[in-house]
Design a protein that fits this description.
The protein is rod-shaped. It has one domain. 41% of the residues lie in helices and 7% in strands. A 3-stranded antiparallel beta sheet has the order 1-2-3. It has 141 residues and is mostly helical.
Length: 141
């Protein structure tokens, strides 16, 4: 009977270096995915704001077409509710729509100027994209 002098080899296994490398690569992919999803969320907020602003802009234009001698700057908040809201799409809106900022705050839409814009609360345009023609956070005019 012959005795085998070779050591018994264990089945193939991962080394600590290989496992660490795979974990690091997975963490990098997760980081990239989380970064991308936050950018997508910001884009979605901008897109929703743009759609809401376009609806208000369309309502404002229809109101002005029906009332060509009306000066928008003279409209008060109460007049906006009673005169422009019926022109918004589903037709049964009771308050002027708002949009959410990137910080989560609700922002108003200024309708007494043409074209309307999202107000940051101090009468200044809110447009975190910094471009007035990208159709995010503005109507792209």
């Amino acid at each position: 009977m012959k005795i085998n002098d070779r050591p018994i080899l264990s089945p193939a296994a991962f080394t600590l270096l290989e496992m660490t490398t795979v974990i690091v690569i997975l963490l990098i992919f997760m980081r990239i995915g989380l970064y991308s999803s936050s950018k997508i969320d910001q884009w979605k907020l901008g897109r929703e704001a743009s759609e809401t602003l376009r609806a208000v802009h369309s309502a404002q234009r229809m109101f002005l077409a029906d009332n060509p001698t009306t000066d928008l700057a003279s409209l008060t908040n109460t007049e906006v509710s009673t005169r422009i809201l019926p022109y918004l799409p589903p037709g049964n809106v009771t308050v002027m729509p708002t949009v959410r900022a990137l910080t989560g705050a609700n922002l108003a839409i200024r309708v007494n100027v043409f074209p309307p814009f999202i107000d940051n609360g101090a009468g200044v345009r809110y447009d975190p994209s910094g471009r007035t023609n990208d159709s995010l956070w503005d109507i792209g005019e």
